[in-house]
Amino acid sequence: MSKTKVLYILPWLRTGGSERYVANLCRNLDRERFETVVLYRGEWGPVGDELKAAGIRTVHNPMRVYRPDQLFGFYRLLRKEGIDIVHSLNYRPNFTDALLTKWAGRKFVSSRRNLRFWKGSDKLHWGEGLRNRRTDLVIANAERLKQSTIDFEKVPADKVLVIYNGVPLQQADAAKTSDGWKEVRTELDIPLGALVIGNMANLRPTKGQTYLLQAFQTVLRSSTRPVYLVITGQGPEEENLQKMIKELGLEQRAYLYKTSRDRFEVIRSFDIFVLSSLQEGFSNALVEAMVLGLPCVATDVGGNAEAVQHNITGLIVPPKESESLAQALLGLVDDPERRRIMGQTGEVRARQEFDLERMVQEHAQAYGRLIPEKRQDGP
Predict the structure, then answer these.
(1) Are residues 127 and 263 in the same domain?
(2) Residue 179 lies in a domain
(3) What would the pLDDT profile of 238-291 be if each residue is shown by its tens digit?
(4) How many domains does the chain have?
(5) What is the DSSP letter of 252?
């Protein structure tokens, strides 16, 4: 039986949640059943290198509306390559991918991986409505995003499917037995016995790291323990955050950490994981921290409260409230037994609910329902 050919569309191949999501699918979907291609519209980046190393084909096509040659090139690619499913991760109101896919007689899947923070409006863009009418399936990575898609975008509920992000457990387990976490602390000159609060996210205003720094100042003033804060990531807010660290007098205890190290080794160097986002979809870093046995503090946005069970595997706090965030962190900083229990409980939950293998299998089932004539027998 012939393979189902899936084409993924990404804005670019830089490092990010959507890019890693696609890379994980391409590497782990059964290659006896699926053939994958990644089309990227913008610049090359580290995820492109990963895809190339894994033997995944990539195609560059900007697909600008005012460039008929680029649009025709996309249409011709679908027809020539025999693509069955186009799975687009374009997040702005661009309808050309869906329109050209349907003209080519292919199935079109779109993703909802974040709430509508880019809109700046409470009205549905006409291009989104046009795109949604030509969409066969929407895959959301959290129930809250599914509900938003149904309520705001008026997409029928039977067209929206929730598939949570998955964590590569083998990679996480390798980090648990590695001494890499010690090397991270050595690089930052943090004592091995100190307590580290860690955040891993892009340095953007929507990640709320300014509120985290304010909360951490309160933690330092209120706790007698040697506590450090490590914010791992890159982005346009780096200069502002560095300036804020100095203004708050946190230079000796708070660090912005840019590294090419394995992300699991970095998270393993933390004792408490914190996500201070103002908007979110379903955070990869949050469930990765849970798999590594860390208690988590997260803001009540996106799918955070679906990952972290309040007072069971961690704590959920309102966004933009540095004092609430500080009190939640203090409650864990000063209670090692609570940290241990929450971390252990969260690890069990994450390994059961957010395994990469489960995520891949659920996508394979969804694609199989769209192209039933190519579906193969098996478990």
Answers:
(1) no
(2) yes
(3) 999 999 999 999 999 999 999 989 999 999 999 999 999 999 989 999 999 999
(4) 2
(5) T
